[in-house]
Write the structure tokens for this entry.
Amino acid sequence: MFSATGITKAYGAVQALDGVRLDLRAGEVVALVGDNGAGKSTLVKVLAGVITPDAGTITVEGRPVRIATPQDAQALGVSTVYQDLALCENLDVVANLYLGTERRRWSVLGHIAMERAAHDLLTSLDVRIRDIRVPVAMLSGGQRQSVAIARALIGEPRLVILDEPTAALGVEQTAQVLGLIDRLRDRGLAVLVISHNLADVRAMSDRVVVLRLGRNAGEFRTAETSQEAIVAAITGATADER
Amino acid sequence: MNAETLTRGPYTPKEAVARLRRGDLGAWPVAGGLVVIAAVFGTLNEHFLSPENLTNLALQLAATGTISLGIIMVLLLGEIDLSAGSVSGLCAVVMTILYVKQSWNPVAAIAVALVAAGVIGLLHGLMHTRLHMPSFIVTLAGLIGWQGLLLYLLGQGGTINLPFDGFVSKLSDTWLPVWPAWGLVTALIAGWAAAAVIGRRLRRAADLPVPPVYLTVLRIGGTAVLLAGVVTVLSADRGVPLLLVLFGALVVALDLVLRHTVFGRWMYAVGGNAEAARRAGINTTRIRVLAFVLASVLAGFGGILAASRLSAVNQASGGSDILLMAVAAAVIGGTSLFGGRGRPYAALLGILVIQSITNGMLLLNVDSSVRFMVTAAVLALAVAIDSVARRASTR
């Protein structure tokens, strides 16, 4: 559905991306892995419209598109959850979900409509929050991550990008978020997850795309691949070299 | 299957205690402080709780309270407006010159003065957002500069009197007779009760959890009793002062705007996490500029109310400790200096505390040196409670 080919981006003398290819399909979770500086973040920023690549084409449903600004990406149905979550801790869950897209009539907030829809959305994602009208500051890390992911779904996106969704979480909360990612797939969304944690990658993804030094360094079907093969691709030690 | 996990349980006393433990103290410490202040001064001086003195108190708090409302608008963004005192004085002088010296219609003079205050706020806001100057410095410059302009406009004379029976002076010498005052209170409570009933119906229709009835009844009933008490006491003297009604209306209106409009929601969002607000597509620059404009206009209106009470403007208008008291009132009332937390009611509660102390000390003939020290202690205590509550709630 989303297809990026030949993506190239240089920061001065540093070649961050060099002809990278990435295909994303509806109802599939793709994990993007690689060592630090492999170009994962740069590739995500290209898809999210934060930076424009020097070369390369992006197609959606076969049609070439231009993603020059975050608004372009949003219009194409790309929704990104950054690692810092970007939640307003003083506002409640409902307010955070609808921040910037509040339902209103003559600028008067539609509290009840928003709370009803927020309630339904969180229930459909099986996100457990006892009271959605308490400030986000009162929630646990996993609940905050869940709210941030749920918020990405408000604009009815087709592709959701998650940057290190489990990095700061404990075991149980990680399980919560992995379950949530499963439900995104069940909704028929294309999901791209950046992660450092290979155990989580194996638990949640259908396909693993490895970047190394700004180039594609392998692509695996998660179910048919051992963790060692992925590590080898990340570090650049291929199986036959060993 | 997990629907019950999202349901808001009944607000039990146990939960209330848990909330208090979490540091969610709300307005209770301030309300408690007010009771203590009333009890202490009431026993030390039998005149303190008399209707006449309480009426004076109501008159004294309106002007600084209005300025404090403006301070809250910028504090919500985590910014500060040090120029509010100077702007209030300048605005009063502009109004007086147009009204007295140029013989304008008083309403037009007030309107032009408020527009001038708005332009000053716009200037502050643009310097802060476009030139990226810290609000502390921008408004510090304002504090000095607008004071200078005030002195320049006043010229050699230094004092301009307002006609005693003119419109502006009448603002602070108009009293609601008994029946209109009761009518106003009844309308307010009836309106609130109606809104509560409709709100409950809509929530139930949308299958959302509804707060327990006794809580709503307690809240509205408690306010009704409180307002009835105020009207009874004030009516025993000259009646409810128009000044208090104006200030109260501003507090209620601003609170409604902040809680129920997109603008209000975005104010809290920018104050809570400006970067998150920006990424959510909110024009944070516009929100900031608007907050500074609101702060200056409210300061200007407060200055006009102060001039009305004094029936004059002079070189001390908007000077001395007005600004400091306005900031202190906002903070004592529970507005966070770090942005994103606080409600307009903080101005009302905070100024009540400060003005009660000032008034009580004056009645007891305590030197103003002691008065300053006591006010400082109350301010420090209020901020200490707030900080401890913050730490408790983020833990």
